[in-house]
Amino acid sequence: MAPLKDNKSQKDGEGKVSMLKFKPTATITVILLAMLFIVACSDNGNTGGQEQPSHSGENSAKRGSITVSMYDRGNVPAEAGTAEKNSWTDWVVENGPTDVKFITVPRWESTDKFNVLLASGDAPDLIQEYATAFRDSLYRTGQVIPIDELIEKHSTTYKKLLETYPVLRKAGTKPDGKLYEIGKLSPMLPDEVMFVRKDWLDKLNLKAPTTDQELLDVMRAFASEDPDGNGKADTYGIADAQGRGLYVMFQDVEWIVQDGQLVKDWERKQAALDYHKKIYEEGLIDKDYLTDKNREQQRQFFLQGRAGVYTGRIASMADFNLYETFRKNNPDAELIVVPWPETKYGRFISYFQNPVQMTAVINSTAKDPASVIKYVDFMSQETTGETLLYGFEGTHWEQSATGCPKILDDERYKNEVSWTADFQMLFSKTLLGDCATLEGQLNPEVPIQKEFLDLYHQAEETFNGKDIPWLTHPEHMPTLPDDLQIISSTITPTMEEISTKAIITKSYSAEQAMQDMKKVWDSAGGKKLEEWYANWYAENSGNAILAKDLIEFNDSLK
User: Fold this and answer.
1) Rounded to 5 degrees, what angle do the CA atoms 382, 385, 386 make?
2) How far apart are alpha carbons 232 and 122 in whole angstroms?
3) Source organism's superkingdom (predicted)?
4) Which label site among 23, 194, 463, 532 has the fewest CB atoms less than 10 Å from its CB?
């Protein structure tokens, strides 16, 4: 594949060149030679014969040279290059303020690779990593630098973001009061919703469920009353593709605020476990779902039209593609998005995309941190982010009736642009307004896209951002000290084993499972975790990014 070009920029460039064309003449040649002779004499007279740095060398020094990490997901098309050097890395270098060498790390083994690079002294100047605990460890071990002064002296774009949205600075500030982390802002969108087959509800004369008991009754009907009318007992009440919402529905989120203190919860965990046990024992879900680690089989049951309730995602084009497959397989089906049913603990939303996400830190060994900040500024710009998200106007997209980019050629976009997500780790999509969401990416004039937009609007109505079951988004929870992390990592697998046993073993009740979990918790040092979290909340709740901060930020975008 040839290097990507912005058709508009290329055209403008060609226009300027054509205006400068001329025919050399003997007179011009003589004048140029004379000028060169004078300059040469002048240089010799001023320097005493010493060699001076070239202008290109000066420009190179001003431009800077840095290294930046980049996830390797194995998704760069061969014709575009490699993860380290491809059409988009070239574009960033050609259009950005500094030379950049990209150092790739495997996406799902990134922290291991970073540790090797840090130990060998080869870690990049700008470390881009989503894992909060890893970034925190770099801060605790002094391997990253504060950036307050660098931002003040060398930034314009990111500096303005910090001023406009104080929550961005708050999220990147560490306990010593200094700013270390760089991040991005995004719309606060639902990451998991509950779809229900409305055509099945209508056929069985049922209403959309609003409580946990009503949901159980609806799932029972879907599993036993042949809603697809094929005369076979081959339908399920639910395909739980995400595996989280039915726990969150009961506010089973481990740590809750009670009487002004952050405490470990057991009551809600037992209620959620008992609910899952009923679903399993009554055959409302495929019996193998617990071993379906990536939930692919659950997705297939939904796509095949065999499940009446589906817990899935609705925030991206990938989710639309899944819906498109569902409709091709089930042309007469009709879906609705319903709010997560209310339990005795309240009504909550499920997982949501982190709207204030920290993504990068500057290595303490960086030789030119000023150039790193200039790179951050470039990658944070709206024009840069729009290009990396959509490609080039006239080549990959045109402006639609909504004012947002409309892809011209899906196949070309897929091959040349769709794999650039990790180039956007510093870009705040809030700068694009509605164009950052499906609202601007789907065309309501296309029937199937309008259908999904309608579902998206239903999801927005159920997702008001104010019924967050957690203290905050999990990425903003504090990172445990190393010794307590060991305790936590030791306890977790055993707790999961007990939970699975309770679900699949009829004689093993959720109540007995809780008693056994508490024994494991106490014997393994769980009380130390309770004490640490309680103290952290008492001392830091005023400075931490909590649910109310995320809600306030989201409201500020409206």
Assistant:
1) 80
2) 61
3) Bacteria
4) 23
The tokens describing 426, both together, are: 């510093």
Hey, how many other C-beta atoms are within 10 angstroms of the C-beta on 538? 11
How far apart CA 439 and CA 74 sit, in angstroms, is: 29
The values of phi and psi at residue 548, to 5°, are -65, -35
Query: Cα 5 to chain center, whole Å?
Result: 28
- Beta bridge partners, 211, equal 342
Three-state DSSP class for 29? helix
Structural domains of the chain ordered from first start: 63-188+356-431 (3.40.190.10), 193-351+466-556 (3.40.190.10)
User: Which pTM value belongs to this model?
Assistant: 0.81
Residues 6+ away with beta carbon under 8 Å from 483: none
Q: What are phi and psi of 439, to 5 degrees?
A: -55, -35
Q: Name 300's Cβ contacts closer than 8 Å, sequence gap at least 6.
A: none
- Answer yes or no: are the C-beta atoms of 457 and 314 closer than 8 Å: no
Gap between the Cα atoms of 276 and 506, Å rounded: 12
* Amino acid at site 167: V
> Which of 243, 209, 202 has the alpha carbon at shortest distance from 462?
209
Tokens encoding 52: 């001076």
Per-position b or e across 202-239, b if 16+ CB within 10 A of its CB: eeeebebbeebeebbebbbbbbeebbbeeeeeebbbbb
Sorted by sequence, the CB contacts under 8 Å of residue 245 that are 6+ apart come out as 192, 193, 194, 311, 340, 350, 351
Contact 297, 289 (CB under 8 A): yes
pLDDT tens for each residue of the chain, 558 residues long = 444 544 444 333 333 323 223 233 333 333 333 433 333 333 433 333 333 333 334 344 589 999 999 999 999 999 999 999 999 999 999 999 999 999 999 999 999 999 999 999 999 999 999 999 999 999 999 999 999 999 999 999 999 999 999 999 999 999 999 999 999 999 888 889 999 999 999 999 999 999 999 999 999 999 999 999 999 999 999 998 777 999 999 999 999 999 999 999 999 999 999 999 999 999 999 999 998 877 899 999 999 999 999 999 998 888 998 999 999 999 999 999 999 999 999 999 998 999 999 999 999 999 999 999 999 999 999 999 999 999 999 999 999 888 899 889 989 998 999 999 999 999 999 999 988 888 888 888 889 999 999 999 999 888 866 789 999 999 999 999 999 999 999 999 999 999 999 999 999 999 999 999 999 999 999 999 999 999 999 999 989 999 999 999 988 987
Long-range contacts of 514-521 (CB under 8 A, 24+ apart): 514/266, 514/269, 514/270, 514/273, 517/266, 517/269, 518/266, 520/491, 520/494, 520/495, 521/264, 521/491, 521/495
Q: Rounded to 5, what percent of the chain is helix, strand, coil? A: 50, 15, 35
Residue 392 tokens read as 């080039």
| Distance from C-alpha of 490 to C-alpha of 289, rounded to nearest angstrom | 24
Q: Are 387 and 419 in contact (CB under 8 A)?
A: no
| Closest of 198, 235, 232 to residue 333, by C-alpha | 198
